[in-house]
Amino acid sequence: MTQIEINTDKTRLDIDFIQWFLNEQSHWAKNRTRETIEKSIKNSLCFGAYHEDKQVGFARVVSDYATFSWVCDVFSHPDYRGMGIGKKLVQAIRNHEQLQDGLMLLKTKDAHKLYSRYGNFGTPELIERFMQQKK
User: Fold this and answer.
1) Which long-range contacts (CB under 8 A, 24 or more apart) does 111-115 make?
2) Which of 5, 3, 42 shows the shortest CA–CA distance to 18?
3) How many domains does the chain have?
4) Domain span at residue 88?
5) pTM to 2 decimals?
6) Tell me: the pLDDT tens digits for 68-106?
7) Residue 134 falls inside a structural domain
8) Is residue 126 part of a domain?
């Protein structure tokens, strides 16, 4: 099996790769500017997935490290799918020492099975209490 390393060192992140994926491959961030991507990385706990020092996956968590975390921008390179990268990213997030307290949320269009199996995620309790600002 191919060795995949998960790391939170932001200096290793390949911003060009992240921007390419978010703009060209994702359904949720097609119009994100490089400036916005860089700002979001700066203000988040980021997880890079690497195969032989090449970045092949990414995940980002926005958190106060006490009461709330939001998991977002989780992806793996299309050429590396089926290697468990998403699972490893979710497990790294769930096991990160600074993310053990408080509520952890995420939103997904098509990865419910991944998150429910590897992150213990499910439908939020009292969903009717959640609100969203409309743009």
Assistant:
1) 111/74, 111/86, 114/86, 114/87, 114/90, 115/90
2) 42
3) 1
4) 5-119
5) 0.89
6) 999 999 999 999 988 999 999 999 999 999 999 888 888
7) no
8) no
